Amino acid sequence: MAESNFVDYVKIYCRSGKGGRGSTHMRRAKYAPNGGPDGGDGGRGGHIILRGNRNYWTLLHLRYDRHIMAGHGESGSKNRSFGKDGADKVIEVPCGTVVYNAETGEYICDVTEHGQEVVLLKGGRGGLGNWHFKTATRQAPRFAQPGEPMQEMTVIMELKLLADVGLVGFPNAGKSTLLSAVSSAKPKIANYPFTTMEPMLGIVPYRDSKSFVMADIPGIIEGASAGKGLGLRFLRHIERNSLLLFMVPADSDDIRREYDILLNELKTFNPEMLDKQRVLAITKSDMLDQELMDEIEPMLPEGIPHVFISSITGLGMGVLKDILWEELNKESNKIEGHIASIAHRAKDLSHLQQELADEGEDEELDFEYIDEDDDDIEELEDFEYEEEEWE
Ligand SMILES: Nc1nc2c(ncn2[C@@H]2O[C@H](COP(=O)(O)OP(=O)(O)OP(=O)(O)O)[C@@H](O)[C@H]2O)c(=O)[nH]1
Ligand SMILES: [Mg+2]
């Protein structure tokens, strides 16, 4: 996948800024030789912030910048001057980005909306200057608070596209042809398996200028959960879809069996996939006549709506859109402004290293930090501050 522009998995190292230390300055002026402590507070270290941006569709831009570091807070100085806060670092991510700790596999956060900001790593608070520590019995404190340390973490960012309807089918089932028929998306279509190598979204216009989003993903085959074909890595892009449209071609030897295989692969990937609403489309139905349809009908799985379609002749397109719209708007499944909720599971540690290797993201990213300015002032080294002394 390395040469592809569709990047949906990256590992990056992030570090917030440390807080600036408080100053230990003593005021000395011509007529006030013992003016007392006037050391100002250190500035806050910069945060690492994630921000959802709908103009990004992949994580490609993060491939070029693997170490993201916020600025450190500056130290306080005389005259009770505050040190400058360190610069925050904002990472723009596409909506639908999920973040995990790359070492523990733990789920960290999820950015789903445009403009949504999440503080991934907090910058350290600045230390208090010495004038805060002046008391009746301690007129000239020659110490101040050190800044809070920085935080660092190597994270995995994974993109899970946000669409309403996900297309599920064997290779060659006609998924991309359907997307091109109902939306203005222009996916590659050809009469061989695995034509589609990366997911694509299309906006499907519906009546009264309503619309919904459809996601075409690469085909799934039996054993995909064990890595066959393109495996199941692309299933993450339909993990959030509230509705799955299963597509089985009319000329399949056994429509029912094909449907069961797809269902089983999905379940192996994530059992929660089976909680989603399902619709079955029998594709390429231009090859059938009414008699054949009547023959197939009783063999179809019970309990889910089905429709015979042909993306080429347009057969069943209106009915299909009606069904999809109706299912999407069911009480349990409201489309308006909603994002299908999924519980983000932590990554399985025993597979994490393999997963990183599969994605080509297993390179070490640790970053040696050399602290240039922790030189002087001994008192700072052993300063023990009490928690309540922080503002
Ligand atoms: N007769 C007929 N052929 C169709 C129809 N829909 C798709 N096809 C053909 O089926 C073949 C596969 O179509 P695609 O849309 O590329 O299939 P896909 O499911 O996206 O396949 P992958 O991307 O490989 O998973 C193409 O040759 C299409 O022209 C249809 O409604 N009727
Ligand atoms: Mg395709």
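^ magnesium ion complex. The chain has six helices and 14 strands. Residues 165-338 form a domain with the Rossmann fold fold (CATH 3.40.50.300).
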